[in-house]
Amino acid sequence: MSLLVKICGLSTHETLDAALAAGADMVGFVFFPPSPRHIGLETARELGKQAKGRALKVALSVDADDATLENIVETLRPDLLQLHGKETTARVRDIKAKFGLPVMKALPVETSADLAVLPGYAGVADRILFDARPPKGATRPGGLGAVFDWTLLAKLELELPYLVSGGLTIDNVAEAVRVTRAGGVDVSSGVESAPGIKDPEMIRNFIRAARATEELMVR
Fold first, then answer.
1. Catalytic residue among 8, 63, 65, 79
2. Mean pLDDT for each 10-residue chunk of the chain (219 residues)?
3. Element at 93 (helix H, strand E)
4. Residue 108 needs a FRET pair 20 to 30 A away by CA distance; which of 39, 86, 116, 164 works?
5. Does the predicted TM-score (pTM) go above 0.70?
C-alpha cells in the first residue's frame, strides 16, 4: 500500500495548487478561528472546487457543534472529517451517523498512557491521526510543530489506517515512517515560511521526500 501524504492548513489557491500538482493524496482545510490557518466558508467553497477530484478534501474542526459542521459540509463537500478536539467516542459516532462521512480522529500523544483511549476510538473512527500533545497552556490543539516520541507507536497493533503528524519536515519524515510504520503522514507547519503561511517549494520538497521514503519501503 502506498504512503498517504496529507498537506494540512492550506488557505490559498497557489499553495493548494502546489500540493495538488506535487501529488498530495489529502489536502486539509482548518475551520477553527484561533488557528492562523483558519479559513472562512467562502474561501473553503472556492478551494473545495479547485481540489475536487484531485485529492481527498479533509475538513479539520475542533469540538465543533452540529450547526458548524453542517455549514462546513455543505460548503466544502469534504471527503473526510478530521476531529481534532476532545470529541468523545460517542460524539465521533454521532457525527459519522449524522453526516454520513468517514471520520479521522486525532489523538494527542506524549506518553504510553495516552494510547489507553485508542481501542475506543478505533471502534468508531475510520482513521486515526497521532499528533504531539500540545504544551500546557496552549490555546490550540495539536503539537504546534513539536515531535512526539515515535517509538511509542513502534509496536502498535492497529488494523485501522493511521497517520502520524507533529513536527514533520523533509529531514525527519523518513525516520517517522520507519519507526511508526504509519500508512500516512500529515504536515502543516513543516511546510510554512511563517505561521499559517504555506511555502509552495517546501510543499513540493516535503512530498518528494515522503515519496522517496515510500520507494525505500517498497525495496
1. 8
2. 92 98 98 96 98 98 98 98 97 98 96 96 97 68 72 92 96 95 95 96 97 65
3. helix 89-99
4. 39
5. yes
